[in-house]
Specification:
Elements: H1 10-21, H2 56-72, E1 79-83, H3 86-105, E2 111-115, H4 121-129, E3 132-136, H5 146-152, E4 157-163, H6 175-185, E5 188-192, H7 200-205, E6 222-226, E7 238-242, H8 245-248, E8 253-255, E9 263-265, H9 274-311, E10 317-318, E11 326-330, H10 336-345, E12 351-353, E13 358-362, H11 371-388, H12 395-404, H13 408-423
Helix pairs in contact: 2-9, 3-4, 9-11, 10-11, 10-12
Length: about 425
Amino acid sequence: MQFPEKGTSREELTSRLNDAVSRDADWRGGKIFSLVYFAGDDTAFYTNGLGPGAFKSLKKFESEVISMTGDLLHHPEAAGNMTSGGTESILMAVKTARDWARAEKGIAHPQIVVPVTAHPAFDKAAHYLDVDIVHTPLRDDFRADVDAMRRAITENTVLLAGSAPCYPFGVIDPIEEIAALAAERGILCHVDACLGAYLLPFTERLGYAAPPWDFRVSGVTSISADLHKYGYSARGASVVLYRDRDLRRHQFFAVSDWPGGLYGSPTLAGSRPGGAIAAAWAVLNFLGAEGYTRLARVIMDATAALIEGINGIPQLQVLGDPDISVFAFASDSLDIYAVADALDEVGWHPDRQQLPPSLHCMVTPVHENVVGPFLSELRRAVEHVATHGVASSGRAATYGMLDKMPDRAAVRNVVLDSIDRLTQVKQDSPARE
């Protein structure tokens, strides 16, 4: 299925959704004895992607999402699956590389090589899957240093990765060079396009230049693409694509001797929510290439205005030359975290980054109408910090201290403690008689 050029009306999509769902097994009537725990009626909400045989609608929707995405990324024959998000997509790509290397090369202790800007999902995948990970430095333009990646390769290396773009700075790594290096060494190459996959094809239509990054690059063997980012789908929807089915087979998991029956799953999750799959299919068809191109124009215009405005503030500068709508800005003369605190006070919340200290923006269509107000408040925040300096309390003091700590293991423990506090709700003591 090709990526649709024109959008489809809500009425037509609803009709097509209902028609597809009508072919599912009669789970509302109790005709199946697994997959669904039903307590009421809501289209696609209770459907389960673990059982495509029962839910033929989900098989159709997922297959068409994969096909449309493959078409968009210039390889209609790509094989893939939907996942819950970019982290799972990346984890699946690393798992596939690990198992491919075991089967094809007999590598027992695999290693992956990624630039320091690669998403932490690669670190999580390496941790969960017992894979070694090597982080390589960047060039001066914040893109991956391919020579450093070359030096990091060993006989156990199974995967190189780059980003299109990386989250911290919004720049596309030199994917052609990384993929050529991977092909030269006979290893796999993954492109993390979770941010860019559903935006870059449409900025290209608008005439924005970007280095090649998708399946047009011959050495690229897999790509991750998040539907719930610039695909505008509901949360819980991503895609991982492979150049061929033989490679994707290493992603799958199966058990043949369980008393409960034969078990197999394509991705990390067992049960998968049908609503996220159906919603992704619907939004791709609803917008079509015309709708995505229209939104890309809004985003890129707003991004250009923000970058120009930030660079026009003498104490600030945008880092690097962002390829799309994600960027960071820093200061050589001010504590940028104090600027963030001042913005927090008036209701603006750019993310804080480190190494180097910077503030981060990810632009979406909603930002079109707030460029002017944000830049005005940013100028005031800069003037305030330039005049009054850094407060003794607030996030600037804490974040600045952590950023400068040489013992990164200690910083990691601070993060773990924070997760513990945020996820463990303290119960009130029972009232005494």
